[in-house]
Amino acid sequence: MKIDRGTAERMEDADERSAMAREVREGLERAPKELPPKFFYDHRGSELFERITRLPEYYPTRAERRILVEQIPSVIAELRPRTLVELGAGSGEKTRLILDAMRHTGTLESYVPIDVSAEFLEQSARRLRTDYPGLRVEPVVGDFLGDDPLPTPRYRPAIVAFLGSTIGNLSTEQSVRLLTHVRESLAPFDRFLLGVDLRKDVRVLERAYNDSAGVTAEFNRNMLRVIDRELGADFDPDAFEHRAFYDEQHQRIEMHLVARGDQEVRIPGVGEFVIADGESIRTEISRKYDRRSVERLLDAAGMGMERWMTDTKGWFAVVTAVRAP
Ligand code: SAH
Ligand code: TRP
């Protein structure tokens, strides 16, 4: 991972672009076709995601925010953390609730947001430096699914936060690998703070990923725009339809881009692909959890759950976990 590389919108690094080319090739050669969700998030993708979090249908952000408002002060008062490390930080809106609680206990010293969206990360780091004078904000631009260990907290105790149910966007293997890296970064008095979306009425779930304003559809198509720009590909984003549905068997939302008419796509250095009329590219999964499945996941990564905190509807949970002895 790279520390604070600055404000590049286009990838500067030939290595990064060839890594992207490889991942795109692997995904499009697979049957069914699939692309990694991190490619949603250029600056525009991050902004579209921010709009998603404010949609009336998209309940998770509001539910998680409520839980944090009501319960994070007591978590922080007990732990007295000096550092907050945050995976997939995004705009850091909910983060402020944690930082405020840390400021209140007088222990706030360092914030380390990690995200692939470089420019967006830099922008929110600047705002936080203004709003929290004296706080060391040390953003890390990088892929949290890479092989590198997570940054070591400068001051402990530390909280490592992974909010927004972003964990649900990973495969089981990816999530266990990432959480194992989290566990390795924790000292005995540190805590992991995880936000997870819970199983519920399918209509509520499906509505959250099929908003009436079409923002989620634009967010979904943004991945093709990113690939066009970064790799010089010629996807026609408007020739793909947004589709999101709940898969009961796997207990997850799947998000797809479905080709309208046969699509021939050329990606320099990657190859030529035909996506047949009606064929789809899966762009994201969003797993839905219950208490047992979260316990199992933490357990698989060598952590134990401490607190289970939900909203009154039981739609979302924020949990704290500790390194298993
Ligand atoms: N935590 C925020 C944002 C969630 S959206 C919230 O709860 O609202 C997911 C965030 O994770 C985005 O900011 C995206 O850029 C980032 N992200 C997605 N995949 C990533 C990866 N593999 N490595 C690092 N960051 C990633
Ligand atoms: N992790 C969140 C979720 O799965 C946010 C998210 C990622 C999202 N991609 C999305 C939300 C696409 C709506 C549409 O819900």
Mean pLDDT: 94
Q: Percent of residues in beta strands?
A: 15-25%
CATH architecture of the largest domain: 3-Layer(aba) Sandwich
Question: Can you tell me the CATH topology of the largest domain?
Answer: Rossmann fold
**Could you say which overall geometry the principal axes of the C-alpha atoms support?**
globular
H-E order = EHEHHEHEHEEEHEHHEEEEEHEE
User: What is the C-level CATH assignment of the largest domain?
Assistant: Alpha Beta
Give me the count of strands: 15
Most strands sheet: 9 strands, mixed
Structural class: alpha/beta
The separation of the N and C termini measures 28 Å
Hetero groups in this structure are: S-adenosyl-L-homocysteine, tryptophan
Which spans have pLDDT < 50 for at least 5 consecutive residues? 4-10
The CATH homology group name of the largest domain = Vaccinia Virus protein VP39
Number of helices: 9
Q: Bin the helical content.
A: 25-40%
Estimated radius of gyration: 19 Å
Count of structural domains: 2
Word description of this protein:
The protein has 325 residues and is an alpha/beta fold. 37% of the residues lie in helices and 25% in strands. It has nine helices and 15 strands. The longest helix is centred in the first third of the chain and has 20 residues, at 60-79. 41% of the residues are buried. The protein binds S-adenosyl-L-homocysteine (SAH) and tryptophan. Residues 38, 41, 46, 49, 53, 61, 88-90, 94, 114-117, 143-145, 163-164, 166 line the site of S-adenosyl-L-homocysteine. S-adenosyl-L-homocysteine binds at residues 38, 41, 46, 49, 53, 61, 88-90, 94, 114-117, 143-145, 163-164, 166.
